[in-house]
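Weekly structure sync - notes
Attendees: PM, LS, DV (DV joined late)
Agenda: review two folding runs queued last week.

Item 1: First target. Sequence and structure tokens pasted below for the record.
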Amino acid sequence: MVATICVLIAASLGLDVPASADSRDGSTIPFGKEPITPVPRAGPLDADKVRLGELLFHDVRLSRGDVLACASCHRLAEGGDDNRARAPGVSGELLDFNAPTVFNAALSFRLNWRGNFRTLEAQIEAVLLDPDLMNTTWEELLAKLRADQAYRKAFSAAYGSDPAPAHVLDALATFERSLLTPNARFDRYLRGEGDALGAEEEHGYELFKTYGCIACHQGVNVGGNLFQKFGIFYDPFSPRGAVTEADLGRLAVTGNEADRHVFRVPSLRNVAVTAPYFHDGRAASLEEAVEDMGRSQLGRSLTEQEIDLIATFLRTLTGEYQGRPLAPDSDRPP
């Protein structure tokens, strides 16, 4: 019954995929009627702005005291997050939320766990100015950038002027729009490569659909495009006891009681390399996260075999960055 309801919800959201898409060799291959679409390659972006944004993204001078860079919590050599339950802010105190991956963030309809930002630029500015995050001011940040001749030259090439707030935000946002991870094995499967997935991975995908996971995790980002309550059939906060402000979800933003424990549904793109999971980093492994979601969101006690099959499918969602499949730091060669 639960699966039927969730599948009907998915259908009501209009989840049919476009009839076709361009394959890697330029031919047109039908996707069929799947509720997930492949990650596209990044569209045409201004090369000067991308390069400048990349420099800014890795520069600790964007924070007060030159302590943190964007890349401190969003490691591009790994999964675009930091592999910690909660990252420390500029003061060293742990932040309220698990750091979401920056990869494919440009494809989501809202940003952050509470979905309180609609654009990359707004979210970036909030991070820069938040006392718990980068804790800088525009006056302080621009003074650093204008004192650096290399930055002045780069801003002049990209924008025809010295560094300005709008240019800093645009450069960072342009770089983040380049952080797409196409060519996951599942994307190749959608594009017509039937042997891109094994039998167990296909079985896991079928379970993912028929059990109702697809109702919230669909589209190009396999999530990231709607809000949902965490704990539909089971209260995931009861075992821990005290509820934190972060646990309140969108209630803390809207003040609407209906938004209690409601979060932006996270993307499952590259989920196998972005542990730990959930807004508070509570689940250390992908299997634990699948089990928790089955109980809390579907009202199902998944068997060990079902958990393994769904996790096996989710591992096929790992895409490529700069031509290489993403991998946890522990899996990378020395």
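Item 2: Second target, run right after the first with the same settings.
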Amino acid sequence: MHLDTVAKYIRRSPYQSIAATLVMTVTFFAISVFALLTIVSAGVIEYFESAPQLRIFFKQTATEDQIKELQKQIEDTGRATSVTYVSQEEALKIYHDLTEQDPILLELVTSDILPASLEIQTDDPENLNEIAAALDGVTIIEQVQLPQDVIDTIISWTEGARRLGIGVISVLLIVTMFVILTIIGIKITVRREEIEIMRLIGASNWFIRLPFLLEGMLYGFIGALAGWTLAVGLLLYETPGLKEKLGDIQVLPLSPIVLTELLVAELLFAILLGALASYLAVLRYLK
């Protein structure tokens, strides 16, 4: 009965219904994109935090014996799970692998100008800080590179994107609320005589209100489903390129379970949002 009434209301004013659905779609597309970016960013940060690595670059004057002696000292501390020596020749090979598409860069660099290094792996990021502090003042070291700088940069960018995303989504949610409230209010106003007749024949307030609430919930359901579909479709389209850029960071493709959980959460939130906006309209226009 009520669903038939909702379908009738939508058929009588299709353009208003399309506008409400489109606004919902845009809002939940933004929410989906923001949520997916947050999930991917969390995976990237977890990768760097779970695989801490300290790199020590040596001066050109450092001899292999000096480097090997320092390597043994670090291993003897017991704080490192592995300490790998990368010679100048190995560094050159790594450089060649990274720049093989650009012959000019290959010709400009020789092993003499690349520093030898140690790559230190630990199970606990705190051990990296202790090792780095112990290396302070060692004369043969040119630079100590901590991954914490990378992690802090990623977190900083993520926090900035999160604040921006929350601001944009908040504005869209407010606009969506007002649009649905206005559209439902217009529909109530247009059907005021019909509503009065229903009251005269004994219809209860909730019997009159329920179709408008269901209509708002329907806008939310369709808008959330469409927004999620567009965002996930965009992610799937971009996944091959993103996987190539992320390299060893295996965060894509996202699990179908994660995507399904996101869809369910968005649908529930959208239905509640549509119901709330419609309820406010009903309270305002049906007194």
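Discussion on item 2: The two ends are 23 Å apart (CA to CA).
Action: LS to circulate a short write-up before next sync.
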